[in-house]
Amino acid sequence: MSEKIVLAYSGGLDTSVAIPWLNDKGYDVIAAILDVGQAGKDMDAIQAKATQVGAVQSIVVHAQDEFADDYVTPVIKANALYEGAYPLVSALSRPLIIKKLVEIAHENDAHAIAHGSTGKGNDQVRFEAAIHALDSNLKIEAPIRDFHWSREEEIDYAKEHNVPVPIGKASPYSIDANLWGRANEAGILENPWNQAPDDAWGMSVSPEEAPDEAAFLDLDFEKGIPVALNGEKMKLSELIKKLNEIAGANGIGRIDKIENRLVGIKSREVYEAPAAAVIMTAHKDLEDLTLERDVAHYKPIVEQQITNLIYDAMWISPLFDALLAFIDSTQQVVNGTVKMKLYKGQAVPVARKSATNSLYDENLATYTSADSFDQVAAGGFIKLWSLPTMVFEQVNHVHSDKLGE
Ligand code: ARG
């Protein structure tokens, strides 16, 4: 009897040729298709294709809400941008995909999992680190990495095994997409001096093509998470989808980046994350209004750590859990509304309020007669604040000796 294997199936050529390849190795393939909100994909067609090319079973897992609620939320709360720019689109879906694959393996008494990642990317590490953590007894197959097909060999193999090969001009790019955004690499993008052509983008118009009128919108946050758009409450997955449309139409969220991969190489990727750009900018703005100064100044240290853990395949790790607990505790007060202006590629906060948690006290900040700030106390404060440097200068004269030079 052949052994069962659960394959992370996307419907593309790589994971499609993986099916006969795994069959040849003696596996019965259960194809698992994860719906994490990749726009424009016909899940039924992908499901049918898997069995057509040789899977014994093909399962679609609808995981958009779980993806939004459990995987995107830490990124929003932690303002997590890898190397200051990339909102971790692909890095986020990997641990969820593996969680679902391991569940399917357990339900179906399968003892192996396969993925279609190459040997040069971060995703293989994210997939396999998560498998090792969740069930170290599972065997891992990585046909695309281990077989090392050239494109021509892959197409020949596909033809021999009745795997449909895209006719005409196949996409020159390697694209990964979900609710939170889209990542595109390879093809003409491999030369970082080549500007990304129009067809490299899929979720946004260019800023030049965006409307000449600015769009304004209000985002309500509860505990650091957006819960309403223009006053209308909606679940997070819905809100992200709506914002992707609105912000994408305003040319927002394009990122063209050279990045440092975990496996040591630099790569060039173009990302689109319109909703993420709006939500994360608004979130940071609301934090500026509601976080106490020391928390606000300390949090970026934790943010950077947690961002790198997510990128570097350590979603399942005790340090991630501990840092997320810190982040969550800071978010209890991040409640309020931010008004965003979207205009030709830019999303900027233009107004903000928090009825319950604003630390902005107009009576303390004002220069009018309503002033309640104790200006007399400021003189004494400055004396004590500068006491250590005053004493140091009196003893060492580092700067005071240079007067008049
Ligand atoms: N470089 C990004 C990451 O490691 C995205 C990888 C997605 N793959 C792609 N085919 N574009 O998270």
TrEMBL record:
Subcellular location(s) of the protein: Cytoplasm
Domain Arginosuccinate synthase C-terminal: 173-391
Subcellular location, principal: cytoplasm
Alphabetical list of Pfam families matching this protein: Arginosuc_syn_C (PF20979), Arginosuc_synth (PF00764)
Alphabetic keyword roster: Amino-acid biosynthesis, Arginine biosynthesis, ATP-binding, Cytoplasm, Ligase, Nucleotide-binding
Family in the record: Belongs to the argininosuccinate synthase family. Type 1 subfamily.
Descriptive protein name: Argininosuccinate synthase
Organism of this sequence: Pediococcus argentinicus
Record gene name: argG
